[in-house]
Specification:
Blueprint lengths: L6 E9 L9 E6 L4 E8 L4 H18 L7 H22 L7 E10 L2 E7 L3 E6 L2 E4 L6 H7 L5 H6 L19 E6 L5 E5 L1 H4 L4 H8 L5 H14 L6 E9 L1
Antiparallel strand pairs: 1-10, 2-3, 3-4, 4-5, 5-8, 6-7, 6-9, 9-10
Helix pairs in contact: 1-2
Length: 245
């Protein structure tokens, strides 16, 4: 039976990886306001960094200032719309930023109630009773083909189209997020991460690391180090949130 969660703790780490010249990932969180998010930017030059940073700024500001009586799914959708508009309009005003965008995955918590919001292929996971469960569904071409039964998981991993994202913030004038509602239990551990982590580590790899009895910041260090050891082909960001009674 779910127990009432009274507080959360969090830690995060972002790393350039071994093969990229810059870090286009961004993260932000407010334990006090119950908002945690990771974004993975894309675009030429520094455009990806601009998009992800702008998304974190807009989402954190809007979600932290949410009215107490407003339903979280409505507030979250409005926050995503505002962030999308901010990125899209900035890219239209600056030719050097044209086409920039970012993925986003966000956790909003109120007591034991948890909402996960995502656009793109950055993921949210939950560890409960030492078992890892993916919460989000990737908005990517290959994952959608897998869900339709047109491609196997093995084929998706080898596909040259695995980097094609079907939904992102800022690339189109409108975007719709996925929203999942959960109930947290004492001891639940949530992971928000960019695909720089999940491209290098399998779910069993991630599960084994997250089941170690270590502080959250050390778990973040272990995840990033493992992803870099496995290749570090992209920027790596992980944000951990633990529920405590």
């Amino acid at each position: 039976m779910a127990t009432a969660v009274v507080h959360y703790t969090a830690a995060a780490l972002s790393d350039r990886g071994r093969k990229r010249n810059s870090n286009e990932d961004a993260f932000g969180f407010s334990v006090e306001r119950g908002v945690f998010l990771v974004c993975d930017g894309m675009g030429g030059a520094a455009a990806g960094e601009v998009a992800s940073s702008l998304a974190v700024e807009e989402l954190l500001r809007n979600l932290s200032a949410r009215p107490p009586a407003e339903p979280i799914p409505m507030v979250a959708t409005q926050a995503v719309i505002a962030a999308n508009e901010a990125i899209f309009s900035r890219s239209e005003r600056n030719e050097q930023l044209s086409g920039m965008g970012t993925t986003m995955v966000c956790l909003v918590v109120e007591a034991s109630h948890v909402w996960v919001v995502n656009v793109g292929d950055s993921r949210a996971y939950r560890v409960r009773n030492r078992m890892l469960q993916q919460i989000t569904l990737d908005h990517s071409l290959v994952e959608e083909q897998v869900r339709l039964g047109r491609m196997t998981e093995a084929e998706a991993l080898r596909s040259p189209l695995r980097n094609v994202i079907t939904r992102a913030l800022g690339t189109q004038s409108q975007v719709t997020p996925d929203i999942f509602e959960l109930v947290a239990e004492h001891g639940d551990l949530f992971l928000l991460c960019s695909d720089g982590l999940t491209r290098e580590l399998t779910d069993p790899d991630i599960e084994s690391l997250l089941c170690l009895d270590l502080p959250l910041d050390e778990l973040c260090n272990r995840l990033v180090a493992a992803a870099n050891k496995a290749g570090g082909g992209d920027n790596i960001t992980c944000l951990l949130v633990r529920a405590a009674g």
